[in-house]
């Protein structure tokens, strides 16, 4: 046994001596913080992705406050045989229309059967349901209804398709927004209702989509990931820890530390009222992944020292002495990386950053207090070192030192090639593809979009010059031209506007003469027609969803197919150009919709996170300068910290090309994680240079020998942890996980293959003497040549 007594810090002595008090105190703090978990709840509103001052959200809210909300439930009905316009199918549509009024918070139900068709009878305007009693209608009547529906702009492409093979019942709901249970309440009611219809009408297919079902999918995605991915991650961590540490109690204490860290982060999030989303719900997995790294560094050093002959207590003390500062630094820098997510324009990413930052610092606190205290009282057995005293990383160290020049210039060339690829990256994604096909919403929505109507839309509030100005013929003509322009654009499935109603009313008031299917040419006539029509509409089917109170503006809606965010922004830009060139200034206004909101937020997030990443880099570099007590090495650390990020985006540009909302936060997140490898490698390198008076090559070998294995293990755990996100059903999580895994692998490559040659190059050639192999003394004083001073 080695009888040399290593100096121990006062902190390590305190933790070891007062281990029972430390354990009790930590458990009390954990219990208090974890109890906040009872306040956690999931958000069921996609608007949570946008900050209160988001201009696109404010424009959308203004439009909805002016008219009515567009939160809806769309139930598509498709007979397996025959078309829509049959007695059986129309009976189902009418029955479902009436049943949909019972949906909680419903304010309007639209379908082919209750569509308010107008016709003239002598001098009277008749406004009535298009289909009143399908059971008593004959073939000719159904043919007439079909002809009307397939030529009506307000129905075709919205409530019935061109081939009359599928139709829909659209229910508008007005959720009070007072409780998170409102959306699940609506979805549960609709699903139960549709199941009854499926049982009653087995020869008819039913599909459920709409904004309410999308909101619920966000909730299901978050809950689903927490229920499936967290157990998977825990299982993988247990297997990996057992394989790497080969110590049951070392594995157990590590699991306890990370579990307590997760409980602390999530509990404190509950206290401050954070609502969980599919993004924020990743926090437990990320905390679990990052928390393992702290414990592994402390345990691997402890086990190494025990193999070298130290007693368990001395080994724990030595491990805390050499690892406390690096673990603290890496925890702080990781927390800074995640806290930089507060620059994000999307609150769920801010919540994720704050929860993970809390969890990471909790993991640090428990790793240097609870972990050593528990290990002091638990039995630990270690395997002896191999006879040679060499580890696999020693072989890698020899190769890197021997071929330092080739590795240095080879890595530089590889990085430059990847950086040259980054201009290929485009910001683009498809909103409806946020969920994969394990979600019923995605499958039903895809089918409805392909066969009936679109899910995405762009809406405008087109203002007239004055109150009542929507009856002005010139105003109506401009709106109608805008509608015709929009219908000619790609991806547009339906355009809904008041001008189609006005044309039909003008025809009705001229004896249903098709020649008069055009806009009224007098303001007073248009106003009279509109008033007569409004007075004839039944309750719940008025025009409040299309006209504002003083009739100075109308709602213009364009429904789109599976359009990407980039295509949506291009369409909106063309629309704004048309309005500027063809409409009066009063009609100009931004398009508003969830599509526009999500399209803009990706770009806004990229710009915001660039600022966050720069600030994080400055803070992290400043911390490293102070911690390493060297301006030179603090600045040197920037290179291996930025290289992996550049490599990651280069690889993404070659393999995927497109980035979206989640990818915009990868840089600061990855920076906070990958800096850990650099900190541990540099701290061991400088310890060898300062305490052991080692040459640069010897210091590099010392770093590989003492921390190389731990870095490999932690990188493997981190990569596996974030790769678990790849199994999420939520695309944002998949992209975040995959890109972070790429960054972690690139970081390990940079710190193993580029940083050592860089250090030896900067430290000068005079001290670079290559020593091949490790002798017995190397096992005792790793990294030093025989005869080196310890």
Automatic annotation (TrEMBL):
Protein name (Swiss-Prot/TrEMBL): MMPL family transporter
Annotated membrane-spanning segments are: 20-41, 224-243, 255-279, 285-304, 325-343, 355-380, 407-425, 608-628, 635-655, 661-682, 702-728, 734-755
Query: What family is it from?
Result: Belongs to the resistance-nodulation-cell division (RND) (TC 2.A.6) family. MmpL subfamily.
**Keyword Transport attached:** no
Domain SSD per the UniProt entry, residue ranges? 252-377
**What keywords is this UniProt entry annotated with?**
Cell membrane, Membrane, Transmembrane, Transmembrane helix
Q: Which GO terms describe its cellular component?
A: plasma membrane
Record localization: Cell membrane
Q: Which organism is it from?
A: Candidatus Nitronauta litoralis
| Entry annotated with the keyword Cell inner membrane | no
Q: Name one Pfam family in it.
A: MMPL
How does this protein lie in the membrane?
A: Multi-pass membrane protein
């Amino acid at each position: 046994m080695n009888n040399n007594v290593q100096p121990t810090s006062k902190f390590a002595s305190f933790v070891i001596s007062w281990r029972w008090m430390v354990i009790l105190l930590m458990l009390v703090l954990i219990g208090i913080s974890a109890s906040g978990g009872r306040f956690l709840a999931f958000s069921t509103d996609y608007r949570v992705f946008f900050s209160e001052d988001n201009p696109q959200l404010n424009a959308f809210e203004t439009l909805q406050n002016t008219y009515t909300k567009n939160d809806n439930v769309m139930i598509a009905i498709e007979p397996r045989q025959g078309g829509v316009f049959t007695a059986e199918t129309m009976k189902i549509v009418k029955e479902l229309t009436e049943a949909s009024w019972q949906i909680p918070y419903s304010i309007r139900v639209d379908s082919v059967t209750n569509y308010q068709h107008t016709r003239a009878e002598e001098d009277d305007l008749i406004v009535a349901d298009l289909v009143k009693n399908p059971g008593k209608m004959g073939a000719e009547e159904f043919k007439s209804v079909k002809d009307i529906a397939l030529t009506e702009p307000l129905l075709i492409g919205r409530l019935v398709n061109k081939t009359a093979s599928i139709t829909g019942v659209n229910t508008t709901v007005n959720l009070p927004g007072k409780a998170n249970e409102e959306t699940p309440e609506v979805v549960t009611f609709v699903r139960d209702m549709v199941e009854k219809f499926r049982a009653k009408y087995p020869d008819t297919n039913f599909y459920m989509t709409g904004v309410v079902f999308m909101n619920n999918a966000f909730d299901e995605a978050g809950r689903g990931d927490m229920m499936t991915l967290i157990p998977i991650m825990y299982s993988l961590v247990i297997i990996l820890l057992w394989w790497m540490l080969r110590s049951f109690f070392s594995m157990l204490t590590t699991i306890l530390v990370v579990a307590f860290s997760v409980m602390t982060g999530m509990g404190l999030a509950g206290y401050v009222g954070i609502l969980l989303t599919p993004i924020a719900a990743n926090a437990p997995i990320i905390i679990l992944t990052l928390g393992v790294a702290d414990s592994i560094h402390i345990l691997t050093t402890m086990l190494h020292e025990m193999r070298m002959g130290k007693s368990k207590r001395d080994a724990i003390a030595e491990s805390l002495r050499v690892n406390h500062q690096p673990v603290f630094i890496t925890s702080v820098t990781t927390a800074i990386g995640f806290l930089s997510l507060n620059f994000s324009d999307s609150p769920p990413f801010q919540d994720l950053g704050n929860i993970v930052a809390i969890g990471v610092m909790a993991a640090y606190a428990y790793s240097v207090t609870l972990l050593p205290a528990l290990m002091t009282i638990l039995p630990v057995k270690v395997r002896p070192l191999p006879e040679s005293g060499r580890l696999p990383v020693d072989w890698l160290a020899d190769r890197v030192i021997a071929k330092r020049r080739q590795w240095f210039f080879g890595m530089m060339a590889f990085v430059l090639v990847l950086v040259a690829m980054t201009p290929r990256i485009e910001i683009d994604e498809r909103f409806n593809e946020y969920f994969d096909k394990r979600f019923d919403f995605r499958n039903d929505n895809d089918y409805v979009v392909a066969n009936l109507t679109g899910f995405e839309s762009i809406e405008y509030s087109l203002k007239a010059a004055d109150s009542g100005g929507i009856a002005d013929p010139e105003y109506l003509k401009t709106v109608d031209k805008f509608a015709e322009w929009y219908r000619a654009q790609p991806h547009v499935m339906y355009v809904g506007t008041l001008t189609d109603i006005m044309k039909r009313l003008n025809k009705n008031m001229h004896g249903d003469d098709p020649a008069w299917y055009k806009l009224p040419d007098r303001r007073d006539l248009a106003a009279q027609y509109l008033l007569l029509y409004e007075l004839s509409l039944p309750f719940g089917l008025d025009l409040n969803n299309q006209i504002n109170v003083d009739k100075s503006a109308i709602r213009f809606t364009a429904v789109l197919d599976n359009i990407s965010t980039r295509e949506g922004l291009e369409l909106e830009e063309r629309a704004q150009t048309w309005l500027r060139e063809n409409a009066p200034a009063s009609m100009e206004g931004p398009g508003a919709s969830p599509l526009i909101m999500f399209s803009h937020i990706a770009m806004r997030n990229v710009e915001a996170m660039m600022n966050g990443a720069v600030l994080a880099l400055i803070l992290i570099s400043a911390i490293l300068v102070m911690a390493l007590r060297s301006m030179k090495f603090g600045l040197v650390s920037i290179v291996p910290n930025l290289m992996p990020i550049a490599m990651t985006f280069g690889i993404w540009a070659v393999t995927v090309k497109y980035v979206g909302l989640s990818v915009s936060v990868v840089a600061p997140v990855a920076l906070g994680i990958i800096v850990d490898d650099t900190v541990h490698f540099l701290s061991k390198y400088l310890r060898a240079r300062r305490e052991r008076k080692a040459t640069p090559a010897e210091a590099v070998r010392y770093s590989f020998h003492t921390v190389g294995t731990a870095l490999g293990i932690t990188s493997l755990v981190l990569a596996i942890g974030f790769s678990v996100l790849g199994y999420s059903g939520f695309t944002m999580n998949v992209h975040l996980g995959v890109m972070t895994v790429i960054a972690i692998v690139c970081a390990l490559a940079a710190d193993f293959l580029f940083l050592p040659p860089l250090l030896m190059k900067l430290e000068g050639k005079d001290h670079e003497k290559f020593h091949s192999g490790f002798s017995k003394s190397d096992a005792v004083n790793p990294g030093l040549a025989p005869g080196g001073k310890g």
